Amino acid sequence: MGNLENTQSQMRKGVLEFCILSIISKGEVYPSDIIDEMKEAKLIVVEGTLYPLLTRLKNAGLLSYNWVESNAGPPRKYYKLTPLGQEHLKELKKHGMSWLTQLARLTTTPLKNE
Amino acid sequence: MVFHIEELAYDKLKNYLQTIRSHFSVSDGRDEIIEDIESRIAEILLQILGKSRQVVTSEDVDQVMSVMGKPEDFAGADDAAGSTSQTTGDAATAESTIKRRLYRDPDERVIAGVCSGMGHYFGIDAVWLRILFIIIFFMGFSGLLIYIVLAIILPKAITPTQKLEMRGDPVNISTIRKETESPAVKREPSGISNVFDLFLSGIKIILKGIVYIITAFFAFIALIVLFSIGMAIMAMLGVGGLTIPVFISDQFLSRDQQMWTTVAFILLFAIPAVWLIIRLVKWMFNIKYNTHRLNVAVGILFILGLAVAFFNVYDIARDFAKDAKIRNTVEVLNPSAQTLSLRIMDDPKYDEESHSNVFSTRRGNFSVTTGSDFVFNQDNVDFKVEKAPTDQFELIQVFTAEGRTEKEAMDNVKSIKYNFEQKDSTLMLSDHFPIPKGVKFRNQKVLLILKVPVGKSIYIDESMVDILDDIDNVTNTWDGDMGGHTWKMTDAGLMCTDFDFTTNKTDDVDPDNMDIKIDQHGVRIQGKDANDKDKNVNIKIDKSGMHVKTEDAK
Q: Which end of chain A, N or C, is more open, meaning fewer C-beta atoms within 10 Å of its C-beta?
């Protein structure tokens, strides 16, 4: 795996995590709801991507889920943020926003001494 | 959640889940991820199938995989997982614990790929194994046999996963992709390998055929056992008509009962038997299609059959519900001699020895005679002797039968036509009686009571023994021994005049302390009382039960 690929996946990981937490913060959601939103935003293309992420965030204590009976298939997991997750998201939003502004400034403005 | 899935689709899906699994480590929460993905796949499949289809096809699996994405796409989303798979991929070749599996290698084969497969397994060049096999070929026929057996037993490595397993490469997404994208160079199969392929498939067909024949044989045995069990159950329920051929079931059952019996038989045995055959064929030929509905239908029909059988047996039992009895007295002419001889008359129409259609029921024997005005003979005649109140011999006939109503029972009694004949001093009795056509077996019985005046004697012929019914006598002699002797009626009862039964010795009694006799009349044990040598004990066991008598020995 090349260096570029590695960097990209690092970046994508952070962004995906941020997006998922944001979507879940809007209410209890089912994975395919998340996928629909993410697909719209062209952030992920295939559903499989989501499950490892959700599991990892849940294991980190940021998410919790409820089983909900479904009339079309097996019972579904509905995810919501834990207090820790809400805190985490708040931090992310605060830092992430400033980080993004810094990024935009760094990548667009020329060097000062030029 | 149950899906029916085509074999090809199943393999594909299994492989897919397997590669996903190999992508994550336990610390990533692998099991949970797989579980989530599986339930999502189930949901997607349900949506795709809708209500009309039942079986998941290979195309459906493709669709699922495109929605869920390739496993390697997951890795990019989660960094930890991505790096794990990368390290395993690199480190795998160095690991010695990789599990290799023995396959035949179709890509590098000369004959069937046995040697190249074993070469992969043992990590040596196939050439050495080929040389080894050629040496064993020439050493004896067994070498060829070993090769053929191996060729039959070892599976061919066909899928990429199998090929990786064969070479001992780790099975994960990167290796599988590599395998599918750049397959191993195929060696052009030799002419001999094509011939051998043909030979091998021939042997496999023969072996399969042998297995089928054995299976079919056992299936046949199983069916016979099933059938016998069914018959036994019917017999236990007392449906005599079913234990005997259909052509005489007219003698037991009404038309309706016969029809319902047939229906019950079909529901309880024929349909399950067909179902069993279908299952066997399905299993033998490895046919995959959904038999769920069929199973349910057969189950329902079986329960229906039980209900039909129950009500039919109940209905049949009701035919035997009521009793009726007719008693009439016939005066027997006093014989000119002091002794009246009793014997069974010969009946040319009824020859039990030569008659093949003699049937046993719990309630006695009967036989079927065709071409006459009666259809069957009831073999249920009993004979008793009592003291006459007058000095006149008298024969009392008691006819009994059963029926659904008392009137029906009485009609059945009236159908009995019992024959006997007196020729001076000989009274000839019948040990059976005919029942006219159209009358059914309703346990018709004849009891004969001969009243003997005190002072008169009777001679009981050996032929009478079968119909004697526990005749009282002063020596308590067993019916089976009474035949062939003359008995005189005294005030105390019948007493033998031509043989001394008081010593408890009959013609065939052993003079020792103990005598055990077993014959068609039952079991008889005679001997001295173990505690009191002055007493004799008689034990007899026959169809009327067990009798024990103790008396003083003189």
A: C
CB A38 within 8 A of CB A48: no
Domain count, chain B: 4
For residues B375 and B439, state if they share a domain: yes
In the block, tokens 């007295």 appear at B329
Chain B: closest CA distance from residue A89 (Å): 18
Task: Dump pLDDT digits (tens) for B49-78.
Answer: 877 777 888 888 888 888 887 776 665 444
The reply to whether B328 and B458 lie within a common domain is yes
Boundaries of domain holding B516:
511-552
Same domain, B350 and B291: no
Residues paired with B517 in a beta bridge: B524
In a domain, B52, yes or no: yes
Complex ipTM value: 0.77
Residue in chain A lying closest to B30 (CA)? A52
Q: What is the mean pLDDT of each run of 10 residues along chain A (114 residues)?
A: 65 78 85 80 74 84 83 78 87 76 77 60
Q: Find the residue in A nearest to B50 (Cα).
A: A72
Percent of chain B clearing pLDDT 90 (strictly above): 3
Q: Report residue B229 as tokens.
A: 């069990």
Interface check for B24 against chain A (CB to CB < 8 A): the answer is yes
Q: Angle, nearest 10°, between helix axes B30-49 and B7-23?
A: 150
Inter-chain contact A54–B28, Cβ cutoff 8 Å? no
* B194 belongs to a structural domain: no
Asked if the Cβ–Cβ distance from B40 to A70 is below 8 Å, we say no
| Pairing label, strands B358-361, B364-368 | antiparallel
